[in-house]
Each structure stands twice: as C-alpha cells, then as structure tokens.
Amino acid sequence: MKELSILSLPEEIQVLVVELVAANSFADLYRLRTTCKSMKALTELPTVYASFDVFNFPWYVHTPHLLLRTLYAAGNPSALYIKGVQFFFTFGLQEEGLALMKRAADAGFERALYTYAMTCKIFWDDEEYFSRLTRKNVDMIGRVVRSLNWGRGMSHNIAFVTKRDEFISSVIPLFYSCECTPCLDRDWYLWHIENSKDQKKNGYVRVLPHSEKKGNAKVQFSSPETGDGNVRKRKTE
C-alpha cells in the first residue's frame, strides 16, 4: 500500500495532527518539527503550544523558563495551572492564583480540575466543581500524589496550612464514615493508620471494617486480651 504523507492532507488536518502529537509526547513533537520547514512552522502555532502538556516535558533539557513563558502566553492549561498553584499556595495571591486554576480547569486539564475543586471546598466550602469529578479522577490523582510525594516539605502559606488541617480533621472523617461512600476497606484502614499515629494504647488499635461503620463511628482501641480479630499491633516507630 502506498504511504500517505501528512503533507498531502489539508492544512487544517495537519494542524490537528500536530496538536495531538504535542499533547502526547515532546520527543515526537521535536522529531516532527525537524522533518521539514512546513512542519516546523506548524509546531510554532499558538494552538499547538496550548495543546502541550508541561508534565510531559523532559526537564533535563535546559530551556524550561523560556518554554513556560511561551506556553503561558499561549494560554496553555498546564502552564496556567502551575502558575496558579504557585500564586495561591506559595505567594498567598489567592485571587490571581484561583483565577488561573479555574481557567485551566475549565479548559479540561484534569489536575487543575481536582485542585480547583478541592481548594474551593477547603477554603470557602464551595462544592460547585465537585460534580465534575469522577471516582476515576480522584483515584488517578491519589496515585500520582502518593508516588511522587507531592507537597511534602514544600513552602506553603499559613492560610493553606490552617485550612488543610481543618479539612483533614473535619471533612475527611465524614467522607469515610458515610455508608454510601464507594471506597474500599483498604482506603479506610490506610486513612486511620496515617491519621491516628498519635493515638496509642498498649500498642494496639482496632479498625472498623466499612460494613460496621455507622454515623460518625471512630476507630476503637482495644487490648490483646479481648481476642478481637480486628485488633492489630502497631509497629514501633
């Protein structure tokens, strides 16, 4: 079969192809850029820069600041998200940071949607964007955060730290204690292990299975003599 050259396609289709390449792989975009002058010109279009995902960029290439400025000027959602997070959580510029995160979320950038929805809930109890989140979104973001350990040791403003602690102590327990919550028992166990480290009694803790949780049920402590099958010994830290 005779090969079809991308140059034989209408220019509008060529632009769509280049945008998809930009969204998926920086390496492939660079190779496409070097094929010919017309492809090089297409890769420099604002719509192509807007399709690029900053998180796919190989940061060992020493052009990050120039690239970020170019992407930000083109309204790239991932660049808007990064700048918005920096403004809000590091510099304390809430209005500017929130506006940038909202632009990225409205453009369909998944990380921005999650961050914006959670930020509005934590700071202002605004749940408007929660309806756009799916269980798949939350699971994906959770895996990314746990694998990269994001946020640990970073410089956050005092307002964020205060609201974060308030959210952890009040909202999260309600989520996990609700019988209608579609979470796994393992999620429940992991949450209590992480947030009950300072609650020790004889080195043992009883965690309630999801099927036994009612209302605002909390973790119950017990001693080895109870014979409770759900009693587990904590590791000495």
Q: Can you describe what's shown?
A:
By secondary structure, this protein is mainly alpha-helical. It is built from 11 helices and 2 strands. It has a two-stranded antiparallel ribbon. The model is unreliable at 179-185 and 201-237 (pLDDT under 50). This is At2g35280-like TPR domain-containing protein. InterPro entries: At1g67623-like, At2g35280_TPR_dom, F-box-like_dom_sf. Residues 211-237 are annotated as: Disordered.
Total strand segments: 2
Please summarize the sheet with the most strands: 2 strands, antiparallel
Q: N- to C-terminal separation? A: 66 Å
- The chain-level mean pLDDT equals 72
Rg, rounded, reads: 24 Å
* Share of residues in helices: 55-70%
Query: What is the beta-strand fraction?
Result: under 5%
Total DSSP helices: 11
Q: Which strands sit side by side, in order, in the main sheet?
A: 1-2
Number of domain modules: 3
Spans of at least 5 consecutive residues with low confidence: 179-185, 201-237
Overall shape: it is elongated
Secondary-structure element series: HHHHHHHHHHHEE
Structural class: mainly alpha
Oligomeric composition of the shown chains:
single chain
